[in-house]
Input
Amino acid sequence: MSDRTAAAIGYVCGHLADIREHLEALGDTGPLDRLLAAVRSGEEAAGPLDWLHEALVAGGDVLGVYGNAGRGLRPLSVGPDPGEFVFLCPRRRCVRYRWPSPESGAAPCCEIDGTPMTRERLR
Output
């Protein structure tokens, strides 16, 4: 999977409710539903991402999934504490991550399929 695809899936995962709401207002959630089905089943996601991107652009989102995917802040390269952990996409399909929450001992779940995210030690 390309970095571009992983970043776009990460964007969709992080903005799932907003994307669905936008597509519902346009009257067709099919492009999002097809992408989610592909990600959940482990199928290739590039085609469904393209269709979702095109639907969003046609519906007024000039950046779509690809333009928005590159707009997040990226942490500087700072050496982590070797005891620190991060939660990553459980299927390694996207670039999203979550920091552990002191309030919750449970792993956060993937927004797309509900699978608990994978806990990884920072290196």
In short: Residues 73-80 have pLDDT under 50 and may be disordered. Helices lie at 3-14, 16-26, 30-41, 46-58, 64-69. The first strand starts at residue 85 and ends at 88. The first helix runs from residue 3 to 14.
